[in-house]
Amino acid sequence: MPYGPHTPGDRAHMLDALGIDSVQALFEDIPARVRSDGIDLPGPEPELTLAGRLEALAARNRVGLTSFLGAGAYRHYVPPAVDEILRRGEFYTSYTPYQPEISQGTLQTIYEYQSLIAELTGLDVVSASHYDGACATAEAALMTVRATRRQRVLMSRAIHRHYVDTTRTYFAAARLTLDELPTLPDGTTDLSALEAALADSERPVAGVLLGHPNVFGVLEPMSEATRLAHAAGALMVSVVEPVSLAVLATPADYGADICAGEGQPLGISLQYGGPYLGILASTQALVRQIPGRLVGRTRDVDGRRAYVMTLRAREQDIRRDRAASNICTNQALCALAATVYLAAIGPHGLRDVAALGAARARELEKALSEAGVPRVHAAPYLNEFAVRIEDAERVHAALLARDVVAGLPLAQWYPDDPELRDALLVCATETTTSAEIQRFATALAEVRS
Amino acid sequence: MTDTLEQTTKIPAGEGSGTERTNRELEAAARENEISTPDRDFTDARGAPHRGDGMGPRAAVGPSPQPTLAELSRPGRGDGKLPHAPADALDAIPEEQRRARPLGLPELSELEVIRHFVNLSHLNYAVDTGFYPLGSCTMKYNPKINEWAARLPGFAALHPLAPDTLAQGTLELLYELERMLAEISGMRAVTLQPAAGAHGELTGILMARAYHESRGDSERSEVIVPDSSHGTNPATASMAGYTTITVRSGADGGVDLDALRSALGPRTAAVMLTNPSTLGLFERQIVELLDAVHEAGALAYMDGANLNAVLGKFKPGQAGFDVMHFNVHKTFSTPHGGGGPGAGPVGVGEKLVPFLPSPRVLQEADGSYRLERSGERPTSIGRVRSFQGNVGVLVRGYTYIKAHGGSGLTQASEDAVLAANYLKQRLAGSYEIPYDRACKHEFIATARPLKAATGVRTLDVAKRLIDYGFHPPTIYFPLIVDEALLIEPTETESLETLDAFADALLAIADEAREDPETVKKAPHTAPVRRLDEATAARQPDLRWSPMTGAESPCPT
Ligand SMILES: Cc1ncc(COP(=O)(O)O)c(C=O)c1O
């Protein structure tokens, strides 16, 4: 066995101590009817050949293309310092800090994570992490239900499709209602529809969820939406992309009660979808409703500063069926990645990431519109936007054949929306180069001629 | 150092080296340190503290407490990672949509960042630094090839929405991993999407709900769990809209079959069993238990957290479980990361296949792979998360399974069970072993007699283990055993380590009788001592404030 330390002598010694001849004696409590004899898989593979197999598999993925794909997962520059820290065995081979005296490293990094995300979002309470942006959003929606004791939430259809779908799955189970809010032609959520939905006093609303920027990359009228939600006694949830908070108004600025989002852009690699980082933050007023671990600062018996998991009565191991959530293992190492990333890149660096993405996106918009491919929506955007192009899926495939990933055909997510049938969602980040933008424009001209 | 540390304590300086230092020597060494290190907080040229209040002096080597990032920050430090954005980059963003408050992130040189986190890492106990017998968590060795594999650029840089033609390597890996897990568990099909065990539980229970509803069987409103179950089981039932019914365990630690029978009925949607149980015991009446569940028309869910005990010995799917989750971060060696990420794939029997979450990984007639399109399988419970799962974790799990092969996995379980029984045997004289039969990969010991005789509780024993260089086992879980220690050695720990750990526990039992105060005040050698958790909860301080950092506009 590859990582086992036992010599035949060691095993014999242990069997001897137990007074048995064979380890099989320890499995006799498994009723014969359900006992199996082995696993039908090939034998152990030596590291040398296994490494070759893995390299070959990885090489079958094609990752070096000119890509404008975003839609909830973004390619960013990650300083090598981040992985240097993630590779420390002291961090990645430890577990949940149940024994604070020998887990101060993990505990302090979680506290630092909470502090940094609180600074980014303006909200004071930050949970140690959730599975991803979709699950954090679903948890945020459930929080509004618990806090208001109402059964219905309103979710803009312009929130990431996977987040709406995931929240729908969670809500169906708990017999709660999720209504989607329509969007206007400019790409923002229809606030008059929001107002009308909130006015239905038969079905009071627990929470209103908007994406900012939304799935079309567009900035939403968050202040006005928040005002409407609060006027109806509902809580406001802002679903954010964290890098954007370096330059955009924070959830606290416009009065949101809860903020959820995907932390992947903060130093976490794409990895085909995970592990990522579910960000969940709230105002102080909701501290007892927030699910997930919280770390607090305290002192030890000698008065030394120290950190510990706190307000644990919200959690499954204490509260069981009355817990705020079933979450146990979360995404701690991804939260560490975000913490190191933010520390390494600093406030000016993060602002540059956001602003460079915006600048590159404007360059992209200009190049595409000169090629006869205009934006779909008119509202302001940050670094992601939808463009209209006839026969979008075919063009997308033709560009792929030229090694250009022309974003995401939105028909995949909105098959019934004629407005979006011929739309591609494209994004730029600080890693996007002018040469890539030119390649896109040139390839586009080729496939359309 | 306190005056309670008078007697000789064995402090293992390294595994098996058996170096002994008296506490007097340690104390003298500490005092020397204090004399040669200025015992005050430093301030910088501007009078700001270098180190936070109450941090004390730092040691040249070994663990040293750290100020926060905000305390270390000095405006003007840290640059050079990115080009600066053009001044007009944000002109299209309306004024009222812009960030109003300055962004107070810390400003540090890269060296300071690295030192901060490296020094913090020294405050952690980890599998890579020592024995971590945390029951129910399977803290086995995390092989390094797994880390290397997950970071191969082909895997790490793949966008989750990349067209299938660009993702054939990862799709093949996921497809094969699903099938390997199906073979290991005897389940019909597997989804790899859930991010952790609890997320797998929710996914599984939602499928059970969808199954009953598809049959028009909508009166089922209850999920049954044993009183020994993990907290995630009842919490999952609630999230899935069910009421939890708890059934007691029998005197032998198994689920009480009669109690289960009387709890079962037309309202039961599912029964969640952990097998081996959280007591480390195989359910000897598993056949009868499963029959009873099925006779009531309910589904049997297996919490697979303890699968490391029975690889190659027991396949839940073959035994009749309808649905189960795996903890890849336990059984298949992926690192626990200080609390995640993990992965919690779910296996299902034939009945539940139609309800698997979307998207599934499919193989085409030409051998290529693709993801199921949204809406392609209307019976699905839908999405349980964004994208495809914690793929980076799954790459590691795949690597582990391949490295072991079928025979290696079986050997791993045999060794894990052997080690647990050996350790149990070694402790039997000094600790109560409430269930005295062959255990699986973990076992319960209790400090009940010790507490009665000396007042030393399980918590104290656990904290004292820290002074001996070990991570304590899981304590006070499961809830049905007083003063429980749940000890899981895993198959990757050497006989020397197992013996050293047993010696430490035996020594602590002696100490408890001779000098209970030393044990009750432990740990004495950790970077911090016992914490004021009451104040932490009463006046929660959950974020540093104020954050220093950028107060001036960015240079553009
Ligand atoms: C018995 C048992 N069930 C379920 C879980 C939940 O798994 P996870 O922490 O991966 O969500 C755990 C682990 O903590 C466990 O020990």
Indicate the topology.
The complex is a heterodimer of chains A (449) and B (556).
Chain A: H1 8-18, H2 47-60, E1 66-67, H3 80-86, H4 89-92, H5 104-121, E2 125-126, H6 133-148, E3 152-156, H7 161-173, E4 177-181, H8 191-199, E5 205-212, H9 222-231, E6 235-240, E7 258-262, E8 278-282, E9 295-299, E10 305-309, H10 316-319, H11 332-370, E11 384-388, H12 392-401, E12 404-405, E13 408-409, E14 423-427, H13 434-448
Parallel strand pairs in A: 1-12, 3-4, 3-5, 5-6, 6-7
Antiparallel strand pairs in A: 2-8, 7-8, 9-10, 11-14, 13-14
Helix pairs in contact in A: 3-11, 5-11, 6-7, 8-9, 11-13
Chain B: E1 8-9, E2 21-22, H1 23-36, H2 69-72, H3 110-121, H4 144-150, H5 153-156, H6 168-185, E3 189-191, H7 197-214, E4 222-226, H8 232-239, E5 243-247, H9 257-263, E6 268-274, H10 286-295, E7 299-304, H11 316-319, E8 323-326, H12 328-331, E9 346-348, E10 361-363, E11 369-371, H13 391-427, E12 443-446, H14 448-454, H15 458-467, E13 474-475, E14 484-487, H16 495-514, H17 516-520, H18 533-538
Parallel strand pairs in B: 4-5, 4-6, 6-7, 7-8
Antiparallel strand pairs in B: 1-2, 3-9, 8-9, 10-11, 12-14, 13-14
Bound molecules: pyridoxal-5'-phosphate (PLP).
Pyridoxal-5'-phosphate binds next to α7 of chain B.
